[in-house]
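Two proteins, back to back. First:
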Amino acid sequence: MTTEERIRSVLGSSEGAEAAITRIQGDASSRQYFRVAGAGRTLIACHDPAFEGRNPEHYPFLTIHRLFREHSVPVPEIIASDSRLGIILQEDCGSLQLQDALAAAAQEEAAALSRQAVDLMVRIQAIPPSSEAVPFSLSFDMEKLMFEFDFFLEHALLGWFGDRFEEDDAARLRREFLSIARLLVRPERFVLNHRDFHSRNILIHRGRPVVIDFQDARMGLAQYDAASLLRDSYALLPDLLVEELQHRHHDALLGAGLSGERFEDYLHLFDLSAFQRNIKALGTFAFQIRERGKRSFEASIPPTLRYIQEYVRRRPELEKAGRILRPVLEEAEP
């Protein structure tokens, strides 16, 4: 059965027969998305092979969707789902990503949208842990952080940048990555993170942000999602606005009782988290370009390298890693 046939089956015989189904260009996901038009409405259909034959009660997307809805986090409504076919039908919240909204907005409007996104992030981070295995039993532990670092070593350092590095460079850099990861594993400070909270996973629908692609949520430092948003490879924010939003996030964490750290300590962990997050992003970009042929990710590599330069200059803990990465960091000089 084709994916289109699966979607029509979930829609039902009358609506399914008449519906116009159009593939939506995805990002770095293995899931397929379609816009379905018919019967006076449009829907978004997702086909996920990992959902096929699975108990819906234990499928992360649906579990976290319920959790977010319970805590007033705006997400698209689920219209129908069928685990036999691996199909989920959702409310169509449009196609205006925060990335594009920011690019088209005047300065103050862009700042207002960014503030809304920070407030939405805090709403997620304020969700208290419960007995749910997903997402609360998952975290940015050593295993997860090193998986992301190793993904970079394989696909970016020795893959995309392979003409400038050797296996010995990867081994030396991995030792530095281990040291950095140890600084980030602080379970006593962990809050719930979306895990991919960037401008392509926030839609602007009827003037408000709506979060999507949240199925990988897990516990981690509050700075992880903050770095994803404020040091986004797809949407570069002015430095003064970033500083304002860092203060906004820090103040909100204090106000919600989620943190008691000084702003200087917040910034320290922000830079270390952002370094790890941007390194992870480079691995993803390299993989998508080399293995999936998605050349559009090439444009995101230079700004990400420039971010990493900033952290290396500011934080002594990153100095050795920066020296090893110098051949590519120097290329990113503006």
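And the second protein:
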Amino acid sequence: MFEALSSKLNGVFDRLRRRGALSEADVQEALREVRVALLEADVALPVVKDLTARVRERAVGAEVLKSVSPAQQVIKIVNDALVEALGGGEADTGARGIDLNAPSPVPVLMVGLQGSGKTTTSGKIALRLKNRDKKKVLLASLDVHRPAAQLQLETLAKQVGVTSLPIVPGQTPLQIAERAMDLGRRELFDVVILDTAGRLAIDEALMAEVAEVKAATRPHETLLVVDAMTGQDAVNTARAFQEKVGVSGIVMTRIDGDARGGAALSMRAVTGAPIKLLGAGEKLDALEDFHPDRIAGRILGMGDIVSLVERAAETIDRDEAEKMAARMQKGQFSLEDYANQLKQIGKMGSLSGILGMLPGIGKMKQQIEGANLDNAMLKRQAAIIGSMTPKERRAPDIIKASRKKRIAAGSGTTVQEVNKLLKNFDDMSAMMKRMNKLGQKGLMRGGLGALLPKGMNLPGGRKPF
């Protein structure tokens, strides 16, 4: 998400940095380029005008143009303007994610058009509330129009380990909603998620149905699910739902397929409703809170280390990681440990998504894509290790030509890929041994250069040893 916009904005700011001192004309030229970049990213025109006007007002001033690092000042002003456009800043002090500060059972109404990912998102939210917030969740499908919609939600409920409302044929959406709330009260559920029906387009029947259910259940949260891939259509959908029904927050799905990101930047300004959650991919754990400041950081190439650490904390097995670290310190790193590392990385999501959270990674985008770093590569490497015998995994030095052919055939890969994995493992093992040999003091003295193989130079041509 935001890849195209991030690339263009970083190009503008790189040119500003190279100029050193800035004139008012330099800032105006940069703002013209920022305006074009935002429009090409499918950001709504009123939002573009407002954002660039705010930046111009703050950037074209003596304290910026005469500061020690004017380019950095301009970048900070753009960052602050992006945070405000995304719904952050001092005016927005509300909690991110779903607000459950209400008497149990808390009704959460899910609304949106058909195909936006509403039912899957309902399952994702249920899993998140169960695992992260330790809530007892009831899922209820109010969709009596789409064939097997209620069965789909029932299946999702089983997958995430929560209760689904028993299906009673012939009931209306209102009757189902009332039955769900009654069951929620009787069986002491914390949250009741009501998944309403969608339509291919907005019509009066859809809005009347949603409004009727909302009036009867009085939900604490009414979450609109929109598909980020539909761009400004998603913004128009959100505006219509806000005007006719009223929503408390927005969930944007398929953000991993939206390189422009204009809908996210336009949503708060156009509808007044905050984006609360982001969905990336079909995995049921692929849901994250929306933080305007962190998203602005990703757009401007500053990374999002906080979200990366949070994702790691949620997915990585801490006990296993500590055991592995202890083995590494003793120089006992094996191919089985390497396979476990690959598995832990895979749990965190796509490699491109992880790398996108690292500061400055945007400038390395082409090299990363050229290296073909993707989750399929991780799976291939795991398959190669899985095709080895326990003895081969513990002592990879015994793997010679005939064994390599057998491993490649068993894993559906090539001998070259087996060689590459073994080379990666050897390099990592060598680095572990150097770390163990140097100790903490040696690492502090030598820095990164102490870990590099002899003969390899650091950036700038400096020798590591």
